[in-house]
């Protein structure tokens, strides 16, 4: 589904004019997809907050070092109100953190959008792991929200991912559970450019994939 024109990096144009014209078509497509579902869990929306089209709601928060739009801070500020009021869970991923991971951890000289999207898709896949594999906690999106959101407006999550591997890489080093946990809470593995050691945690959810026991995790 596509429109004929862009929003020109203008939040109001994307929210009230260009976007408003496509809402009915989008809802119709969503309705048809929902009718094919046996057990609808919810919706994952992946947008940028920097441009005009994507800044209505989304999960990619702009960063100061890799901004290509002058009005990006305004678009993000106007979008946050919609995210606070109208979403149940928001995963914050910013471009600065993605580029830092590509440069420092993955040793990529010139990361492409494919490399950045690989990190985003791996994170999104990890978030929904409990829907596709058996587990003891957070068996669906609703339970994840119940366990992770202490207050209704505090639903902005900062995801971390470990181990980080380059796109197409088949080389995996065996890691212990303590090593994985340490990497997850390392600033270099965070999808938002901030140091998790500064501040306080209200809730934390850790999702492990593979063969391991709860005794190892504890």
Automatic annotation (TrEMBL):
Domain Tubulin/FtsZ GTPase: 1-135
Cofactor dependency: Mg(2+)
InterPro entries cross-referenced by the UniProt entry: Beta_tubulin, Tub_FtsZ_C, Tubulin, Tubulin/FtsZ-like_C, Tubulin/FtsZ_2-layer-sand-dom, Tubulin/FtsZ_GTPase_sf, Tubulin_CS, Tubulin_FtsZ_GTPase
Location relative to the cell: Cytoplasm, Cytoskeleton
One GO CC term, this protein: microtubule
Keyword Secreted appears in the UniProt entry: no
One MF annotation (Gene Ontology) recorded for this entry: GTP binding
Keywords: Cytoplasm, Cytoskeleton, GTP-binding, Microtubule, Nucleotide-binding
BP GO terms, sorted: microtubule-based process
Short name of any one Pfam family annotated for the protein: Tubulin_C
Origin superkingdom: Eukaryota
Location of the Tubulin/FtsZ 2-layer sandwich domain: 137-218
UniProt KW Nucleotide-binding keyword: yes
Function as written in the Swiss-Prot or TrEMBL entry: Tubulin is the major constituent of microtubules, a cylinder consisting of laterally associated linear protofilaments composed of alpha- and beta-tubulin heterodimers. Microtubules grow by the addition of GTP-tubulin dimers to the microtubule end, where a stabilizing cap forms. Below the cap, tubulin dimers are in GDP-bound state, owing to GTPase activity of alpha-tubulin.
Family the UniProt entry places it in: Belongs to the tubulin family.
Quaternary structure note: Dimer of alpha and beta chains. A typical microtubule is a hollow water-filled tube with an outer diameter of 25 nm and an inner diameter of 15 nM. Alpha-beta heterodimers associate head-to-tail to form protofilaments running lengthwise along the microtubule wall with the beta-tubulin subunit facing the microtubule plus end conferring a structural polarity. Microtubules usually have 13 protofilaments but different protofilament numbers can be found in some organisms and specialized cells.
Protein name: Tubulin beta chain
Gene transcribed to yield this protein: Tbb2_2
């Amino acid at each position: 589904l596509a429109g004929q024109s862009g929003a020109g990096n203008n939040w109001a144009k994307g929210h009230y004019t260009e976007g408003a014209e496509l809402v009915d078509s989008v809802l119709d497509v969503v309705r048809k997809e929902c009718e094919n579902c046996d057990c609808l869990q919810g919706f994952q929306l992946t947008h940028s907050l920097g441009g005009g089209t994507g800044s209505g709601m989304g999960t990619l928060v702009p960063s100061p070092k890799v901004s290509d739009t002058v009005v990006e801070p305004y678009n993000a500020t106007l979008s946050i109100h919609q995210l606070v009021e109208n979403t149940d869970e928001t995963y914050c991923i910013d471009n600065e953190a993605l580029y830092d991971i590509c440069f420092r951890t993955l040793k990529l000289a010139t990361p492409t959008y494919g490399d950045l999207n690989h990190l985003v898709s791996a994170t999104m896949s990890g978030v929904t792991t409990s829907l596709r594999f058996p587990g003891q906690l957070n068996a669906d999106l609703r339970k994840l929200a119940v366990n992770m959101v202490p207050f209704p407006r505090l639903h902005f999550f900062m995801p971390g991912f470990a181990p980080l591997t380059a796109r197409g890489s088949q080389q995996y080093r065996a890691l212990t559970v303590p090593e994985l946990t340490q990497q997850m809470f390392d600033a270099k593995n965070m999808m938002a450019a901030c140091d998790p050691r500064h501040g306080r945690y209200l809730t934390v959810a850790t999702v492990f994939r593979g063969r391991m026991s709860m005794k190892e995790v504890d």
